[in-house]
Amino acid sequence: MSNLDLKPAPTSCGREAGTGPAKDLLTARQFPLGAGTVVRRLLPNLGRRMVGAWCFVDHYGPDDIADEPGMQVPPHPHMGLQTVSWLHQGEVLHRDSLGSLQTVRPYELGLMTSGRAISHSEESPRPHARYLHGAQLWVALPEAGLHLAPTFEHHPDLPVVTAPGLRATVILGTLDTATSPGTTHTPLVGADLALTGGADLRLPLVPDFEYAVLAMSGRVDVDGVPVEPGSMLYLGCGRPDLPLRADGDAAVLLLGGEPFDEKIVMWWNFIGRTTDDIAQARTDWMAGTRFGEVHGYAGARLPAPELPTVPLKARGRER
């Protein structure tokens, strides 16, 4: 998915010092994603730029798109990151410059690793389901992954962990004893936690990871903090487990990973290490080189915004 902000600010990302257990409730900014659909952006956020290597989190829906075209994201480029498509309702048709053509359905993993360069489009199929509800996430690649050849993975069957009141689908990484088949490049985890009404449990965590919980539907009390759909609670590091309670049926995404130590710059749909990295990527996309071509999308590709006049400075542990 593209960052559709027409005036994207440079985002300096990296690990922040002194991160222990926390309870920071993040609110979203809103952006249009196509007729009938608006996304709620939780990361990057004021004062919180990353959770492990997770660096971009959009939540959308549930939206009634029965009489609307739904998601319409034209061809656009990526570098230096992975995109994770995750649905609770609806379908997304993925096309990319590798020639991939794949419909991603609820609880299936669509994982695109951009490496050095890729382009793709995402759209609601025609015809499509009435409702669209999901999340789009990015994972920053470490320096060793910046020059990888791009890939796309589709995993329709993912491992599940169950406990009284809980059904957890492992999207990426490992939860308990279950490991996703999706490729990762840093230690991280992503899991969809479906809780039934009356659930009251403690979820085991990795103390060295930092975590956040995004509410997808219903209300969940996360370590005593009520988290409503479209909001995200940052939890910090140093937690051996996480108390979760739901009075009614609910679902959240658990995102976590080792704090990301590298200094990076994220601007528009690119992640690099220097201003020159970003500027060259923009030049290459506008010139039609490097990122390949997406075939079959009925529309023009997305032009890159103008670069900001301020330097795109990479930072690390400091805010």
Please characterize this protein's 3D structure.
This is Pirin family protein. Its cofactor is Fe cation. Belongs to the pirin family. The strands form five sheets. Strands 2, 14, 15, 16, 17, 19, 22 and 24 form an eight-stranded antiparallel sheet that branches. It is globular and about 55 Å long. Strand 15 and strand 16 form a beta hairpin. It has a single domain, classed as Jelly Rolls (Sandwich), CATH 2.60.120. The two termini are 27 Å apart. With 319 residues, the protein is mostly beta strands. The longest helix is centred in the last third of the chain and has 13 residues.
CATH class: Mainly Beta
User: What's the SSE pattern?
Assistant: EEEEEEEEEEEEEEEEEEEEEEEEEEH
- What structural class is derived from the secondary structure elements? mainly beta
Looking at the overall shape, the CATH architecture is: Sandwich
Distance between the termini: 27 Å
Average pLDDT value? 92
What's the overall geometry? Answer: globular
The number of distinct helices, counting runs of at least 4 residues, comes to 1
Strand residue content: over 45%
Domain module tally: 1
Q: How much helix, percentage-wise, in residues? A: under 10%
**Count of extended strands:** 26
Biggest sheet features: 8 strands, antiparallel
CATH topology: Jelly Rolls
Residue stretches low in confidence (pLDDT < 50, at least 5 long) are 12-18
CATH superfamily: Jelly Rolls
How large is the radius of gyration? 18 Å
